[in-house]
Design brief:
alpha/beta, eight-stranded mixed sheet, 8 helices
Length: 241
């Protein structure tokens, strides 16, 4: 892909096999993190799914593609983000995805969810940018880890699971906090950019019941291309796979 095409993708949008993402009005663009989580999270038999901090609507659209019968709700605290998500959803094959402009801390629902997915903010003490919207998307001021766990407890069913992606160090903190609140880590995928790089991301799925941990490793790049494992994970979404 040329530099011009890459820049056009970043500004104008991102085309997937079954839907497209416009992202010019959102602080956080389509990322490898979001794509990995949307492709990796176990959505089997999940009938009601909540996407917390939806941004462009990417995760909501990915899980809907994988589980078309599920009722999906996408929420975000930032008004421009939720407007962009709504635009992406209404032009997709699944315009029935619900979008709600609401702070996750105050979100409530009469229906109980079977799965919550989130690519949450994780910067705690880092220097903030001038862009207020970007700060909301990236810094834990807008959504503390404990707030996400409380949301899971509040709106999830007794069998509801929580799937997140975080940098490895923040992932360790999140795991400890979840365990302190009675949750169990049921799936873990440690992600490396290349085989020689240190683990950079943790894909995690938690449950309230204790299970044998399903632990995996994923290397994103081999040489100058995506690895076979990454292509296998994301083949239903990338146009080139």
């Amino acid at each position: 892909m040329s530099n011009t095409q890459t820049q056009r993708s970043k500004v104008a949008g991102f085309q997937f096999k079954q839907f497209s993402i416009a992202q010019c009005n959102t602080a956080m663009k389509v990322s490898t993190d979001g794509i990995m989580l949307g492709a990796w999270a176990d959505v089997t038999h999940k009938q009601r799914i909540l996407d917390v901090g939806t941004g462009t609507g990417l995760l909501a659209l990915m899980v809907k593609q994988r589980q078309p019968e599920a009722v999906i709700t996408a929420i975000d605290i930032e008004a421009d983000a939720i407007a962009q998500a709504a635009q992406n959803i209404v032009t997709s094959p699944w315009p029935d995805i619900k979008v709600d402009h609401v702070d996750a801390i105050h979100f409530s629902s009469n229906d109980r969810f079977d799965l919550i997915v989130s690519n949450p903010p994780y910067f705690e003490d880092a220097l903030k940018a001038q862009d207020v919207k970007r700060n909301l998307a990236r810094h834990t001021d807008s959504l503390q880890f404990f707030d996400l766990i409380q949301l899971w407890q509040r709106v999830g069913s007794s069998s509801c699971e929580l799937a997140v992606i975080l940098p490895a160090e923040q992932g360790k903190k999140f795991r400890s906090l979840a365990l302190e609140n009675g949750a169990h880590l049921s799936r873990l995928c440690e992600v490396r950019t290349t085989q020689r790089k240190a683990i950079s991301r943790w894909l995690m799925q938690f449950s309230w019941d204790e299970r044998k941990l399903d632990k995996q490793e994923l290397v994103i790049h081999t040489g100058d291309d995506y690895s076979e494992d990454y292509q296998r994970l994301c083949k239903d979404f990338y146009l080139r796979f």
